[in-house]
Structure formats: C-alpha cells, structure tokens
Design goal:
CATH superfamily of one domain: Intergrase catalytic core
CATH topology of one domain: hpI Integrase, Chain A
Order of helices and strands: HEEEHHHHHHHHHEEEEEHHHHHH
Shape: elongated
Strand content: 5-15%
Radius of gyration: 31 Å
Number of strands: 8
Distance between the termini: 121 Å
Length: 418
C-alpha cells in the first residue's frame, strides 16, 4: 500500500523545456536582446498555461520562428532591430524598386537617432522633439514629411496585430512642424514650384533644336536631336519622364492620335539593368490624347532610331523596341531619364531661362498651357494620370485667374442695364 501511495505522488514527466510552477506551465527558451547597443543572450519564458502540452506547443512555435528569422522579442527589441525586421517585410511587398531604396535610406536616418533605444521606451514627446529639431537644423519640409511617413509605417506595424510589440503607436497625434510661405511669395501669388510660361517654352524648344544642329558631329547631333524631341513631347503631353522613356513602338497609336501608358522605366541600378515597372498608381494607367504635331515628332524619332540601328549594327539592343534609345555604351537600350535631364539643364542655360526646372516640371508647363487654352482641370488631371494633385491645382488656379476675372466682369455687364 505504501508503494502505491509513493507512486501516485511521483511527478509526471514534462515535455522538454516545460516548467511547472504552482500548477501552471511555461516553456523556457533563450533569445538575444539588445541592451546599450550590444546583443546579449537571455533566458525567457512563455505565458503560463493550465496544461504542459499547451506550454510546449507555444514554445515550439517560438523556436520555429527563431529558426525562420521571424521571431521578435516583444519586450526588449530595439528600434534598430525592429526597423530591420520591418524592412525585410516591406522589401517583399509589391512596391517599386526606387520606392524601396528611398524607404531604406529614410529608415537608416531614423536608426541613427533611435537605433539603440528599446522600441517600447520611445515616447511621443521624444519623437515630437526630434521632428522640431529637424526643422531647426534646416531640414526642408519634404525631408521631414518623408522621415515621418517612414517612421509611421515602422511603428504602426509594431503596434498592430499580429505583432503588437508595443501597446501604443507613439507617432499618433504628433505635430508636423509648420513651414510658412514667405511674404514675397504670397505677394507674387505664384506657385513655389515653377513652370515655363508660353513664351519661355517657345524659346526653350527652339534652343533645344538649335543646340542639336550645332553639335560636333553626326553622332552627337543624333543624340541631341533625340533629347530635344523628348523635351518637346513632354511639354505637349504631360507624360512623366519614366513613362516617356518606357514607350515602345506598339504604345503609339498614330491613327487615333493616342499614347498607351502601361509602364514606366526604372534605371536605379544602371541602364543595362533597367526595369519596366507598372505605372505609379491605377490612375496612371491611361490613354493620352495627343496632337498631330506630337505624332509627327514620334515619326521623326522613328527615322532617327533607324539610323542608329544601321550605325550600331549587331551591337544594337533588340530585345525591346523602345521609341527613345540609348546611343552611347548600350545602344538600343532605353534612353536614360538622366540624359534628358542633363540636356534640359544645358538648354535652359543657353536659352537664358533663369528657372531651376527638371523634366518633371514640364508636366506643370503642360498644365499651364492647357489651362490657358481653356481646358477643364478634371480633363487635365486625366491626361496627367492622377485624380488629384496639389501642384497641378495650384498652377491651374494661377493661370486661370484672368479668366475668372473676365467671368466676374460678364456678370456685372449683365446686371448693368437693369
């Protein structure tokens, strides 16, 4: 009888790693935590369970996630370590290559400031002071907005299921530093980002072609004429430069005078490693109506490309039939947006146009010309490929001020005879 009593008091054998305390069971495991910028090995336990099998299962899941590299230490992970984990997940998302590069750059800036802090210990006040410090140090509004956008993405991921590493998102409710416009810019009433006025555009385009004709040799003339044509088309269509450089022959519908926009060029890793991405967003996938003059420019470009194909022979890239092509080390590959931008800068200097403009600003030039021609804002936005854009609206309202003034005068004239 005594032997039976002794056997009944003998403890059950627990699964490996499981410990019992006061009738509750936990799984003990080791992990690495970051303290004062250094990683240390530390033993931890799972939550307690009423039976050993549940504790063991919870522990095995943690072990599996450690092996896969997806486990995070909810209590002690540093901002830097979590940011790296977040970026691994972000990088796998369906985003453009250049967007991923930009996010990583901003993340690294944030890591310099907060990297060694435990994520759970960063306070809203601490982050708020950081944003104000950025402005005080001379950082521009767009730089601060970009950093804040990235920080928000990192922290929201940590606060939401299934991770829930922190109880509260410390970026919620913080105040973005205010940037006031100068008195002079308000007096002028012009958009801060500039565009070419109608007369300036005429000088700009004429100078672009004139410079091409004065190039040193036939090869250089071909290159310059192509860039001049590209700038001309950008001004008259409102295309993004990446959309223009991604065009192939099948995208041009000469009969119906339309351009089919379904891709954009990404040369983040060099022209020979170009990528054809989908457009910026859903509204960017569109048909752009063009004039007979633009169709004529595309025909001229097709003739120029045939000359280049003959010139380079077997060295001409034939995988894609791009409209605008590289004529340097990688003939036949797409024309680099950087080459167009460099030529534009030279043309602006030669033309004496004292404005700091990029090819993208030619979209604003297209907006101003369309507004002056009396085209409605909604129609302009459809051509440009976005539903709403602050700068487009600002340019449109600036150009149409005189039209609005005429409409007011018409109302007064109507009422005068009463």
């Amino acid at each position: 009888m005594d032997n039976i009593v002794k056997k009944s008091k003998k403890k059950k054998k627990l699964p490996p790693g499981v410990r019992e305390r006061d009738g509750r069971y936990t799984y003990r495991y080791n992990t690495y935590v970051t303290e004062n910028g250094k990683k240390k090995r530390k033993f931890k336990e799972t939550a307690s369970y009423s039976n050993p099998a549940d504790a063991y299962e919870a522990g095995i899941l943690i072990k599996a996630s450690q092996i896969q590299g997806t486990y995070v230490d909810e209590k002690n992970i540093s901002f830097g370590d979590w940011a790296d984990k977040w970026f691994e997940m972000y990088e796998q998302s369906d985003r453009k290559d250049h967007t991923i590069v930009t996010r990583k750059s901003r993340m690294n800036v944030l890591k310099k400031e907060f990297g060694d802090y435990k994520l759970k210990e960063i306070t809203p006040l601490q982050y708020q002071e950081y944003l104000f410090r950025l402005k005080k140090s001379g950082k521009e509004k767009n730089t601060i907005l970009g950093l804040h956008s990235t920080m928000t993405m990192i922290v929201k991921k940590a606060a939401r299921p299934p991770y829930e590493i922190i109880a509260k998102d410390f970026t919620t409710g913080v105040e973005i530093p205010k940037f006031k416009e100068s008195v002079q810019s308000l007096k002028e009433g012009k958009p801060k980002e500039l565009y070419l006025e109608k007369e300036e555009l005429a000088v700009f385009i004429n100078t672009a072609y004139a410079m091409a004709e004065h190039a040193e040799n036939d090869h250089e003339r071909m290159i310059a004429r192509q860039c001049a044509r590209a700038l001309h088309i950008l001004s008259y269509t409102g295309l993004r430069i990446g959309e223009l450089c991604a065009l192939d022959e099948d995208d041009i519908d000469e009969e119906n005078k339309k351009i089919n926009i379904i891709k954009t060029l990404n040369v983040q890793h060099g022209i020979e490693n170009y990528i054809l991405d989908t457009p910026k967003n859903e509204t960017s996938i569109r048909e752009v109506d063009v004039t007979s003059r633009v169709i004529a420019l595309f025909r001229e470009q097709a003739i120029e490309k045939k000359k280049a194909r003959l010139m380079f022979g077997q060295n001409f890239y034939k995988k894609e039939d791009f409209v605008f092509v590289n004529m340097h080390r990688k003939p036949g590959c797409p024309l680099s947006p950087l080459e167009i931008a460099r030529y534009m800068a030279e043309v602006l200097r030669e033309a004496g146009v004292c404005k700091k403009l990029s090819p993208h600003k030619l979209r604003h030039t297209y907006t101003s010309l369309s507004a002056e021609a009396g085209i409605e804002l909604a129609a302009i936005q459809r051509q440009l490929g976005h539903a709403n854009d602050r700068m487009t609206t600002q340019v449109y309202l600036h150009v149409t001020k005189s039209i609005r003034r005429t409409n007011v005068e018409k109302l007064e004239s109507l009422m005068d005879h009463l």
